[in-house]
Amino acid sequence: MNNKKARLIVNIGMVLLLPLLMAYSLIGEKFHEIIGTVMTVLIVIHLIQNRQWLGAIFKGRYNVRRTFQTILDILLLVFMVLQPVSGILMSKHLYTFIQVPGVSSIMRQIHMALAYWGFVLMSIHAGTHQVAPMKRLFIKNGKVFAALLVGLGCISTCGVTAFMKRGFPGYMSGSVAFAFFDFSEVRLFFILDYLAIMILFMSFGGLAVYVLSKITRKGKAEEK
Predict the structure, then answer these.
(1) Phi, psi (degrees; rounded to nearest 5) at 38
(2) φ, ψ (nearest 5 deg) of residue 120
(3) Taking a C-beta distance cutoff of 8 angstroms, is the pair 158, 205 a contact?
(4) Is 31 exposed, middle or buried (0-12, 13-18, 19+ CB in 10 A)?
(5) Which residues of 176-204 are buried (b: 16+ CB within 10 A; e: fewer)?
(6) How confident is the model at residue 4 (pLDDT cuts 50, 70, 90)?
(7) Torsion of CA 199, 203, 204, 206, to 10 degrees
(8) Reduced to 3 states, what is the DSSP secondary structure of residue 145?
(9) Within 10 A of 16 (CB to CB), how many other CB atoms are there?
(10) pLDDT digits (tens, 9 = 90+) for 74-113
(11) Are the C-beta atoms of 131 and 145 separated by less than 8 Å?
(12) What percent of the chain has pLDDT above 70?
């Protein structure tokens, strides 16, 4: 398996597992910990696959696009470290042998806030890497590109509604201490809502990079 295919498999795996992790109580705490462990392994592999980024972070010139992506990636790196650590310290099934007395309650609050922030940041991060494929699609088939944009726009609109419906603002601000789950809800509807939110922020990430790239190119043209 070549490196490109390996990266694709890891990326797809993280995208598929992310909405499931957010289901938490709906899928059961033990299954949540298992999926969380798999996600952590995939994240470590992803970091190893992209280790050249760490080596290049202090090299080269920074424009607005690179600054945006670097800040985003650093925030994600912090999340990737704190999220599994907080999860392990509050584990009730897989990691009960790693327990620090008196921190479970604090870790739960940290873990929940990080979960929602991480979901948004990872979605934006994924979207920043879709600009090049979208450009290739535009060149290859403009009609399909236009149809895809319309579809993404519709789903993103649903994502805004789902973002509010699922209580993201309260969880991300820390004003809501406990996640609410409707156990009578069809699980598929929950997953679809989170996929819509994911696409919303992926679209934002792609749009942000596209706009910042335009600004960067305009700045270079003016310098000349």
Answers:
(1) -60, -45
(2) -70, -45
(3) no
(4) middle
(5) beebeeeeeeeeeebeebbbbbbbbbbbb
(6) confident
(7) 140
(8) helix
(9) 12
(10) 998 888 888 888 888 888 888 888 877 777 778 888 888 8
(11) no
(12) 96
Residue pair 121/72 in contact (Cβ under 8 Å)? The answer is yes
pTM for this predicted structure: 0.87
Q: Which candidate, 127, 115, 102, places its Cα nearest to that of 179?
A: 115
How far apart, in whole angstroms, are the C-alpha atoms of residue 9 and residue 17? 12
Separation of CA 165 from chain center: 19
Q: Where do the structural domains in the chain lie, given as residue ranges?
A: 3-223
In this structure, what token pair is assigned to residue 127?
């979207």
- Count the neighbouring beta carbons within 10 Å of the beta carbon of residue 217: 12
What amino acid occupies position 118?
G
Sign of CA dihedral 7, 9, 12, 13: negative
Angle at CA of residue 40, ends 178 and 98, nearest 5°: 70
- Interatomic CA distance for residues 203 and 23, integer angstroms: 22
| Residue 167 Ramachandran class (φ > 0 left, ψ -120 to 50 alpha, else beta) | left
